[in-house]
């Protein structure tokens, strides 16, 4: 009959010894393995459990193995065979690494059958050998503290990092140190499809403490939901709508680099994750990352034809990563990329009319913007042109004042023209009318006063403001207008000749008119 060993003191195992037990409970013992020692904890209940504070297993010489047939439960201070030359083998069926605290394994080898599952974070100091087994991170991270590219090995096994939440916690944290060579994480899916990910860190100033956090997940719902943490939109200007399902592969990758870097990435995805619409589903796709906008041009950093079956790959080189910044990435259509430049385009109704605002994150050889207006969203006419920044990698803000807005819902379209004369539509927005009633205002000057004529269908109080051509308020007066024509004289004005704007603001109506003031 196999005995259960409860260890409360130091145990020194003999050289070349073999211990078999139904289960092993370490209640604070210091278990020292001396020489090439092989310990097997056998049986369906053959768990290793540590319950006491200060307990650990270590080896005094290389060549120690712990062969575990059931689960690893660390509820104490155990460091899990942490000395060089010590290996823990999970050789049973469907095992878990559990506990109240994470374990440090020098070598961790996956054998046996079924999926091995973490229920807490764990660290591997030398080699994580997956063999043919899947390792489900299950919402936890594995910390690889050996920076060499060969610290993770596989013979068909893979790491499952598929937790479907915005901030994916199933993370491989690799302490790459100064090793800027290519590292491969053998990711895979619950269905057993291998989708390896390779990165070359290219950290600008690497140290022995340089690390890379990596996670990946598919999205079962349309629109790539849930979007990764921090992402505010996936609007596609080519589609004039949200393009996250129509122009983006249904998979996210999340990264954090300890230092600024320009890594090379090779992504893998399943063909069934290609939900792009024709013709984008068979065209080239490239990588884009979120940093307050979708960057960079996904055709520039590398692209490849999208696949509809099997596994596809895309290699993107020299992708800029900011230090210690959570950075989500997607693969999107090169023909319909997520907006690279435009991060804001909206309109507001203010005292002088409709003000249109837009911002760009990057510009490349841009010459000017053209703002167009339409009352039906079909036929547009140009109302203004604005000089662009040229080439810029910083946030640029623009605005335009439509001082004679339409008295109906208005469509505004923004076009960008580059220095070669090529134009493209950036986006289209709608702005509600500044007045919900058909009203007019006229203004003219004579001597040192201004006459304002208001034709209104409302009986209400108004505030009359006068602005100069620099937008400064130079006069204000309260007034009351009845239904029909109302004449208001603004007297004793000490104004210089020039262009002014009369703004009439009521409870439910707004009117504006340009005024050329003279002293004739």
List keywords for this structure.
520 residues, mainly beta, Immunoglobulin-like, 15-stranded mixed beta sheet, nine-stranded parallel beta sheet, disordered N terminus
Low-pLDDT ranges: 1-19
Question: Based on DSSP secondary structure assignment, what is the total number of beta strands?
Answer: 47
Based on Cα principal axes, name the global outline: elongated
User: For the CA atoms, what is the radius of gyration?
Assistant: 34 Å
By helix and strand content, what is the structural category? mainly beta
Separation of termini? 117 Å
Total helix count?
A: 0
The overall average pLDDT, rounded, is 84
**Total discrete domains:** 3
Proportion of beta-strand residues: over 45%
Largest sheet: 15 strands, mixed
Q: List the quaternary state of the chains.
A: single chain
Helix content: under 10%
How do the strands and helices of this protein lay out in sequence?
Layout (H helix, E strand, L loop, with lengths): L3 E4 L3 E3 L4 E4 L1 E4 L3 E4 L4 E4 L6 E3 L5 E4 L4 E5 L3 E3 L11 E5 L5 E4 L4 E7 L5 E3 L3 E8 L4 E3 L5 E3 L7 E2 L4 E3 L11 E3 L8 E3 L1 E2 L8 E4 L11 E7 L16 E2 L4 E2 L8 E7 L6 E7 L13 E7 L3 E2 L7 E3 L5 E6 L10 E7 L8 E9 L2 E8 L5 E9 L6 E7 L8 E7 L7 E9 L4 E9 L8 E7 L2 E8 L3 E9 L4 E9 L2 E7 L7 E9 L3 E8 L3
Parallel strand pairs: 1-4, 2-5, 3-6, 4-7, 5-8, 6-9, 7-10, 9-11, 10-12, 11-13, 12-14, 13-15, 14-16, 15-17, 15-18, 16-19, 17-20, 19-22
Antiparallel strand pairs: 20-24, 21-23, 23-28, 24-27, 25-26, 27-33, 28-32, 29-30, 29-31, 29-33, 34-35, 35-38, 36-37, 36-39, 39-40, 41-42, 42-45, 43-44, 43-46, 46-47
